Amino acid sequence: MIPKKAEIENAQPKKKVSTSILLGAAFLMATSSIGPGFLTQTTVFTQQLAASFAFVIFISLLLDVFAQLNIWRIITVSGLRGQEIANKVLPGLGVFLAFLIVLGGLAFNIGNVAGAGLGLNAMIGLDPITGAIISAAFAIFIFLVKEAGKAMDKVAQIAGFVMILLMVYVAFITSPPVGEAIVNTFVPEKISIFAIVTLVGGTVGGYITFAGGHRLLDAGIKGVESIPEVTKSSIIGISVTGVMRVALFLAVLGVVSQGLAIDPSNPPASVFQLAAGEVGLRMFGVIMWAAAITSVVGAAYTSVSFIRSFSPVIEKYHNWIIILFIVVSTVTFALVGRPVTILLIVGALNALILPIALGTLLIAANKKDIMGNYKHPLWLTISGGIVVVIMGYLGVVTLIEQLPQVFK
């Protein structure tokens, strides 16, 4: 057992630091999941399903909550990163998981960098490539400062609050049929399995699944005694994601219910412009940039956290490897553009990362050599198992459907 004296002596300082760190971890996860893809997915699906999209949001958030409660808790109680846990469950599995997550993080980060460029274009009319380079420089600066972790937490929180305020404002001025949306949350007129898979994958798929848990671990928050705070942080993260998704959904629903035509070439920008004219377009630019830059930071940080334990050199220079990750994403976008085929393949594989990762961690949760004397709650194991089965099945179906289209 750890000496009680040390725990008592360190209790106060940890308590003061933890509030900021817990919020930072929650917002890192939330803002990582709210990238350019999030804005487009929510807009397109709302166009297709109208008020019934409320049901999709409800189901996806339920699956998100059970996935995150399990993953954050198992990581912090074990004191191990996701790849380390996976390697203990089955040697080599952690390396495979790290490969999938780094590949996915790099591919999607190209899209995040592109989104940041488009955000500055909509905000101040800057050329998208120039905007992407400036945005990448901003992200790199975060990891150059002495307290990179704290800087990252602060940027994620500020960006998250700005996005929430702007989205709620646009949702308010479009006057959506809220009553109809509430009814369809529980009794939908249409159901789209594909939309549910896409939303869950986008919210807790790939690197996003581990963003918050790894951030808490790097900040020194671990052990059974941290469970209440870890649970609170994970729920805040999912709640922030939920508020943003609901606000954007209502904004789009308000535009659609008025019979206004949304421009298919840039659906989310079109919604904001239709809702608030030129000012709305500038607001969209702010939201797009904030969503993209936090996703750039989150993707780079979490992807690199998956290879840190593989070598002392990587551990020592991880901040520089994060910077290299951002540079490679930016250069690829500037020179090649977004590689559509890679994005499609990785997008299909991304649907499988959640069930593989969560399934592995649930096995680990019942291994004494990993978790010590900790007993994982039965209700969490069952709820997590349900998420694994549902997302495993739907992920395979999605993969089978998408791969033929990729190789056409």
From TrEMBL:
Pfam families the UniProt entry points to: Nramp
Database matches in InterPro entries: NRAMP_fam
Signal peptide range in chain numbering: none
Membrane topology: Multi-pass membrane protein
Transmembrane segments: 21-39, 45-69, 89-110, 122-143, 155-173, 193-213, 234-261, 281-307, 319-336, 342-365, 377-400
Keyword terms: Membrane, Transmembrane, Transmembrane helix
Cellular location(s): Membrane
Record-linked PANTHER family: SOLUTE CARRIER PROTEIN FAMILY 11 MEMBER (PTHR11706), TRANSPORTER PROTEIN (PTHR11706:SF2)
Listed name of the protein: Mn2+/Fe2+ NRAMP family transporter
Organism annotation: Peribacillus huizhouensis
